[in-house]
Amino acid sequence: MDAYLIALASFGLIYLLLVVGLNLQYGFAGLTNFGVVGFYALGAYTSAILATRGVPVPLALAGAMLVAMVPAFLLGLLSLRLRDDYLAVVTLGFAELVKLVVTNEAWLTRGPHGIPDIPPLVDAALSPDLRPAVELGVLLLVNAVALYAIWRIVRSPFGRAIFAIREDETAVTALGKDPLGFKIKAFMIGAALAGLAGGLQAHHLSYISPEQFLPILTFYVWIAVLIGGVGTLSGTVVGTAILILLLEGSRFLRDLIPGVSETDLASARLMIVGLAIVVVTIHRPEGIMGRTAK
Amino acid sequence: MDIVFIANLVVAGIVEGSLIALAALAMTLVFGVARFPNAATGDFMAFGAYAALMAYATAGLPIWLAAAIAIAATALLALVSYRFVFSKLLNRSPVANLLASIGVALIIRSALSWYFGSAQRTFSFPLVRSMNLGGIRIHPTDLAVVGVALAAMLVVFTLLYVTPLGRRMRAVADNPLLARASGIRSAYVMVALWLIAGGVSALAGVLLGVKAIVTPEMGFDVLLHIFTATVLGGIGNPLGAVVGGLVIGIAQELASPIVGASYKLAVGFVVLVALLLVRPQGLFGGAEVTR
Lengths: 294, 291
Description:
Largest sheet of chain A: none
Low-confidence stretches of chain A: none
Largest sheet of chain B: 2 strands, antiparallel
Structural class of chain A: mainly alpha
Distance between the termini of chain A: 45 Å
Oligomer: heterodimer
Largest interface: A-B, 41 and 45 residues
Distance between the termini of chain B: 43 Å
């Protein structure tokens, strides 16, 4: 059971990075990024490819963040000219494009076979009993640093500016601030976090393949942001916890109802996420920890 | 590349394009009137395809009757989604509506994969030989698919441009406040809108299923193309959406020998980004202010 809890917590912490990243993008800067899984996959593959070719894991993770920031910069440039709903569809398309490249460029990614034997997060010489706990510690540390950094960013003049852009872009422009610059930076920081999450996942699992990066993952992250509260950091943690509960809770359906197959479980999970999105959008658009609607 | 090779690609593009066009017609109607890109369009298609498959393969009904049942069932499903979800979000942002439509899409998809499983299914029609017109191969099924799609478009256009209902719908799409001031009951228009959108999506799904395969994800897989066709034609422009669908279909087929078949799907995305940068109002749109 301990091993299960540690695995669950590691899983949750990797998701937390994705949720923090999206909350910075959507919650604070109003950027509708529907391509979370694309940045996540990009990070995972970058880190895996680098590390399996001998690059030390910390450097590989830094590479993952950098590579994820490149499309974020381009999409951020594009976002100036797009309405929110258009940006959503374009980023959705971006994620599909990443999936196509990852599946087809077998010389680099081994295509559908996936990349095995990715070096672990912590020293491989460590005893197998100890390793999950140490990995959890590393993930905790990374999350603490990331959350603190975002907390500082949000409270800085930069954070106030991106928040103001979300509320009223024209007013911010009138004050002589450049909304595009702020938006691009918010997009890139969020993407870097998603890339980092992907890299961590790759080293954590030691194997990645294209089917780990399904479009639905993006909406897992969205539902955590929406439930927790758009634009709040405490909401990010609460939202992620609820998401993990929803995803893992469906696993226990199998114990309650006999004869539930793995596909049934996947369907149930999809149903829960769909219902959650609809209910939250209609009844509590500001989320659980969010400020009440203006 | 000789001319026959290109002609074959164009034919394939027209077939694919007419399906995208039909679905884009459903999307652009909702986009024009309810003002958000309905991500559930693809899952309405899948729902329609499964409904027709049940009626055709399980109940043994003729295909036209199966398609009619699918259209009716999906129109009802769309109306239910309006009644319980979208009618509660009328005054909210497009993003809120888009998110809700993704929720609806996931609910439909999960119900389909729960009930039918994720295995591929097909309408098993008897095999028919392709017609060969001087090297250009045309499959009778494809011909039927394009014919039905065009006929359906004709029906929708008649509805939109000849009937009083269509006039009201276009009025609401054009200017909701003015439409209301002129005494048009928007609730009535909305009900009609969702019935039509559901029915048209269902037919697109049935045709796609007849041409290719039926899976719970079949609609989601073409969603980006549908959206691109919608933007290409100009939001809320039915004729534009149809032309946009054909353009995407043909462009995708023509590009496939150049970029490789596996990147065929990326063509739509590239067209979309280029289009949004250069001409966000679409090929036929006026100077609509998008922001």
